[in-house]
Write the C-alpha cells for this entry.
Amino acid sequence: MTKTTGYLGELEQMVLLAILQLDDQAFGTNVMGELERRVDRKVSRGALYVTLDRLEEKGMLTSTLGAPTPRRGGRPKRFLTVTPSGLEALRKSRNAWMSLWDGLDSVLEQR
Amino acid sequence: MSLPSLPRPPRFATTLLTACMPSGISRDTALGDLHETFLDMVEDGLPTYRRLRQAKVWYWKQALAISTRYSLRRIGKAARRSERVEQSPRRQPQKKPRGPLMNDMWKDIRFAARLFLRSPGFTFASVLVLAIGIGAVTVMFSTLNSVVLQPLPYENPSELAWMWGSSETRPRNTVSALNYWDYRDEADTFESLAAVLFFSPRVILTGDDEPERVLSTRVSYNFFSALGSSPQLGRSFLREEEEAGGSSVAIISDGFWQRRYGGDRSIIGTPVTLDGQPVEVVGVLPPGFEFREGVELWFPMQRAGSLEQGRGNNNFGIFGRLADGVTIEQAQAQLDIIAERLETTYPETNDGWGVTLEPLHEVFFGGARSSLLIMLGLVGLVLLIACANVASLSLARAMTRASEVAVRFSLGAARSRVIRQLLTESVMVALAGGVGGLIVAFFGIGALKAWGPANLPRLDTVGLDGTVLLFTFAISLVASLLFGVVPALRSTKLSLSETLKVGGTRGTSHGKAGFRNGLVVVQVALSLMLMAASGLLVKSYLSLQGVDPGFEAEHVLQAELQLPTWRYQAPEEIANAWSQLHDRLRAMPGVISVGAVDQVPIRSGGTWNVVYPVERPPANAAERAQFGAQRRFASDDYFDALGIPILTGRAFESTDRVGSPSVLIISATMAERWFPAENPLGKELFVWGQNWQVVGVASDVREFGLASDYSPVFYMPSRQVAPDRMQILIRSAGDPLELAADLRRTVWDYDRSIPIAGLETMETRIGNSLAQPRFRMMLVALFAGMALILASMGLYGVLAFFVRQRIRELGIRVALGAAPQNVIGLVLRRGMVLVGIGIGAGLAGGIAGGRVMQSLLFDVAATDAVTFGGVSLCLAAIATIACIVPAMRAVKVDPQEVLRTE
C-alpha cells in the first residue's frame, strides 16, 4: 500500500507541512502546537496519531526514536521526517491547487 | 519536605490505550507524549491535589478519544477488508484475508445485530434484566469508590498516620497536649507530627454585623503544613505562637472569608472580636480545605491554654506525616520507646498508656468501608441472579436455534467458530446491559443522594467517573461469560442427525433441561440469601427501635445555649444567669419542665474522667484505668425534664450551688461497679483534685446511641461547676417544635448576645442515629425484592417451557380424562421440587455466609431461625404463584388441537 493515486487530504497536507516547518524538532505534541500556532487549527491527539500512522503506512513519513526518559514514563519520543515520496505528494497537491487557482485572482479579490 | 516521586497518569487509561492502539512505535511514542504532557500539567507550579486531578481528567479524555478513534479505524478497516473478500471470492480463492479474527468478529457482530432485531423480545428482556443487575452493582461500587476508595484530599495522603493514645481498656483515645509536645520533640520518624483539638468549640464573633457563633478548633503550628496545605492568603501559624503568651491570631476558612467579609483581602492583619477578645486574622485557607466538618476558625494551641494543661487531659487528636522511607511499623517502634520513657517519668498520668498508629484513611473511612463492602457483596448476588436469568433465556432460545446451529455444522463450520459467534452475541447483550446499567446507575445515584443517610461521609461526591465506567465495562464482560459460556458450549454439543430429523422444534435432551433447572435452583437459592439478609436487617432495626433509651424522648426540645464569656465570668454570675434563664423558659406557655446538661445522650463521644472512691484509691495504673466514667454537668431539673428516674437519694437542688459541699449523682451502672453490694449514698468520690459526696443514683441512659451498652456516668451539679455552654431540654405538653420561636424570643429578651444552636427534638435525634441502619435495611430490602422478581421470572420461564415441551403428553392426559388438579399437580410438583432444592441450598449458603453480616446486626443472630424460616415460607409462597400460571395453562390444553398439529 505504498502507492496511492489520489491527492493528499487537507489534514494530511497540513501535518506534512507542519513537520517540514519544524525541521528536526517535529514530534507529536509539537506538530499539534505548530498547527494551532500557524493556522489556528486545533487537532485532537487521536486524529493526529491516526493521520501520522496513515502517512507512515503510505510511506510519506518515517520516524526515528529519541531516547526514552522517565518523564515520558520510559517511552521514546517519535521524531518525524517527510520522505521523498511525501515531498512528491505535497508537490503534486500544490501543483494541482495552483493550476486550479490560476487566473482566479481577480474573481477572489472582489470580496 | 520530601521529594515526591513523579506522579503517574491513571493506570486504567493507559491500559485502555494499550489495548486499543496497534502495538508498535506509534503506540509507544504516543503514550510517551501523553505521559510528558500529563507531567507538564501537574508540575505547572506546585503539584496540588486539584491540579493532579485536572491532569488526570485530561488524560482520561485523551485516552478515551484516541481509543475511540483507533477502534473505529480498526472496525472500518475490517469492514472494508471483508467487503473486498466478499466481492472478489474467485480472484483470490486461496488467500485468507489478514486478521481473520477481526474480520470474523465484524461479521459476527453484524450477524448478531440482525438476529437481535429479529427477536426484539428476547433481546429487550435480557438487556433489561442485566441493566438492572449491573446498574445496582454500579451504584454500590461508585458509592464505595467515592466514599472510601478515593484518597484523602491532602498531599500524599498515604504518608499520613493517626496516633491514638492507647491503654488496655481504651485502645483509641485522644492525647494530651503535654504528651503530644514530648512525642513531637523526640519522634524523628515523622516529618511532622501535628495536633488538633478533638472537639470544635463555638466562639462568638461580634462586630459590625450580627453576633455569630462559629465552630473553631485549636491546632499545632505545623497542622496545615503536615497536611501539605498552606493558606491562599496570609500565612500559617508560627512556632512561637504556640508558646505561652503568644499573640492572639487565627486563620479562617475560605467559606467564612467569603460569607462574612466578602472576600476582602484587607482582612489579613485586621483584628476581629472573638468571645470579646481582639484576635488578628493572619491567614485564609484555600477553598475546599476541610479537616473537621464545619470548622471555620483555626487557633494555634498555646502552652498556657486551659485545654493544653494537664498530662491527663486528653484533648487532642494527633496525626503525622511519616518521614521519607519510614514505614508505619518503624515509626510505631520509635513511639513505643518514647511512650515507655514517658510512663516512667510521669507514672501518675502515663502509666499503662502507649500510642498506636493507624493510617489516616483507615481512621476516617474504615467504618464505612466494611458495611459498604457487605452491601456490594449483596448486590453482587442480584447480578448473579440476573446472569442466571439471562443464561436461562439464552438456553431457551438456543433450543429454537438448534437447527440453525446444526445447519452450520453440517456445512462444515468448526465448533469453535460457532461458539465464537454465540459468545459475540452474549458480549453484545452484556455491553448493551452495561450501557443500560449506567443509565440505571445514573438515576440510582441521584436517588441515593436524595434519600441516603446524611451522615455517610462524602456521599455528595458519589458519581460516575473513569474508574466506575471501567468497572461497569469489566463486570459486563464478566457477566457475558457467566451467562454466555455454558449455553454456547451446550447448544453446540448437538447430535446432528437427531436435531435435523425432528426439525429442531423439540430437540431437547434431559441434560439441557437439567442445566436450566440448575439455573432456577441457583436463582431461588440466591434470592433466599438476599431475603434472609433483608429479614435480618429488618428484625435488627425493629429491635433497635424497641430499645429503651433510658429517658422519655417524646415532647422534648433541645437547644444549645452559650453564655458569652466576656459578659459572664465569675462562676456565680454564670450560675445566676442559667438560673434566671431556666425560670423564664419554665414560665413559657405549654412548658412542663426545663432541664440542662452539657452533653445530651445519643452521641458519638463524650468527656470522661478518672473518678474513684476516696476510701479505695487505685493501687496501680491498671486499677486506675477501671475507674474511667463519663462526666456530665446537669441542672436540678435535668432528670425530671428527660424523665430519667432517680433510683435512690435525691436529684440536684437549688442549694447545691457554688461554695456549698460538692455533690455528685452517679448512674446505676456506675453504682454497681464502683460500690458493689454497698449503699453508694454518702460515699465520697475523688475527681478534679477534690472529694465529692454521692447524693443520688440515677437510672441508666444510652449515652452512645441505642445500640450501645450502658456506660458508667457521673453528674456534677451545673450550679456548682458553672459551665458556660449547656444543652437546654424543654419538655412540652404539645408539639415541642412549636416552642422554638418562643424559646428564641425568651432567651434573646434576656440577653441578645446569647447564640442559640442545634434546635431539634430528642425524637429527631434518636431518628437520626438510626438513619444508617434504616437506610441499609431499605436498600437490602430493595435488592431482595429485585432478586425475588428475577427468580420468579426465571421459575415461570422454566415451567412455561416445560409445559410447551410436554404439551402433547399433557393433551393426551387431558383427553384420557385426567382430572385438572392432577395435571396442575404434575406441573406444580416439578416447580416445587426446584424451589425446595433452591431453598435448601439458600438456607445452607445463608447460614454459612451470614456471619459477615453480624457486624451490621443488633440483638439478632446472623443465623436467626425465625428469620430464615419466615423468608423460606415467603419465598415458597411467591414461587407457588409463579408456578401456578403455567400449570393453569397446562389444564387449558385442548387435546384435539394438540394432537392434530402433531
